[in-house]
Each structure stands twice: as structure tokens, then as C-alpha cells.
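[job 0412] stage=fold_complex status=start
inputs:
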Amino acid sequence: DAGVTQSPTHLIKTRGQQVTLRCSPKSGHDTVSWYQQALGQGPQFIFQYYEEEERQRGNFPDRFSGHQFPNYSSELNVNALLLGDSALYLCASSARQDTGELFFGEGSRLTVL
Amino acid sequence: QQPVQSPQAVILREGEDAVINCSSSKALYSVHWYRQKHGEAPVFLMILLKGGEQKGHDKISASFNEKKQQSSLYLTASQLSYSGTYFCGTEQYNQGGKLIFGQGTELSVKP
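[job 0412] stage=fold_complex status=done
writing structure:
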């Protein structure tokens, strides 16, 4: 049973560029959440998708947007990249009817130069 | 609104016990605990849903005091495999699924 898979694992961009990160949830899960984790910090909630709609959003600017597809996979898009966007981006999946346990992927390490 | 964890770091010898605390200024619906090893994804340990609830998993247990908005994680007879960074994640009422994580507690268990 495959867990949460994310791609790409590492990428380097320059300021002003745009990036798309992808996530496939664990089999049987219908909810996807995205987190940003800076070095030495706890994960920060970006947003959550369920039934192809954004259900919850953290304190992130509109440059951060997302999408969920009918097969429950999800994308995170970041426009007009800033140096401060450099971080590990974690995708977590869960099942709506469960207690809320999150299964995290290994993350996508984004470096903005 | 980020929960505050204490201590920030702790070093143990194998077999020793540790307590990690998590405190929030907001009314909480639930508290989650996760462990993250260096270069790996966070891994779920347990979730506490109601005030005064306690849960245990092997030699790791936790409590949640809903009145004080505090949770504690107890690691008993620590093993080398317990090393990592522990995060509490808090969920407020009417914000289902939105977990706010603390800054983490780095635990090192030495032989």
C-alpha cells in the first residue's frame, strides 16, 4: 500500500518564478493538506482540500494556491517566488471520516535563489 | 496562536524518562503528537480529543487537560529509536483539519 507520494523531491528556482508541487494521497484518503516547514521550525498550515474545494486556509498570501483533482491528488502552486519561500513543503493526507490522523509525504525541498 | 512547546531540547540516556509539554492560548478541540526524524516525514504518534483524556502507545503516553489547554507527552524508559523532533499540533473548534504545530522539541537519546 503506497503512502503519500510527492514530486519533485528537490527543486531550485529563481526569484519571481512559479512552481508547482504535486501530491498523491495514501490509498483510501480523500483529504489533502499542505504545510510549509522552514529549517528548524514546525510545519505551518497552508491549506486543506476536500471534495476538490479549499476548506481551510492558513496565513499565506494569495500567491499560494492549490487544486484537488477527482482522484484526490493535489497540487500546490506558488507564484512570484520570494527568497523566503525556500522551505520543505509537506503534503499530508487523511480520511474525512477518521479521527484526523495525518499521513505525511517526504516533502518537496524548494530552494529559491 | 502557535502552541508553545517546552523544553526546546532534551538529552537523555537510554532508559531515562522525559516529558514534553504543549500549551495553547486558544480553546482546543484536539491535540496531535508527531515525531520527525532528521530528513524524514513527520510520523503520527497519537491524538487526544477530550479533556483529561490519556492515551498510551507502548512506552509513550500523553494527556490532554482541556481546561488548561495543555497537553503533555510522556516517554518512559527511552530507547535510541525515540530520538527525533517532537511536534504537538493543535486543532481549534470549528476549524476541523487545520492543525497548528508548535516549534518542536528535539529529543536525543544517547547509549
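[job 0412] summary: Chain A is about 0% helix and 50% strand.
[job 0412] exit 0
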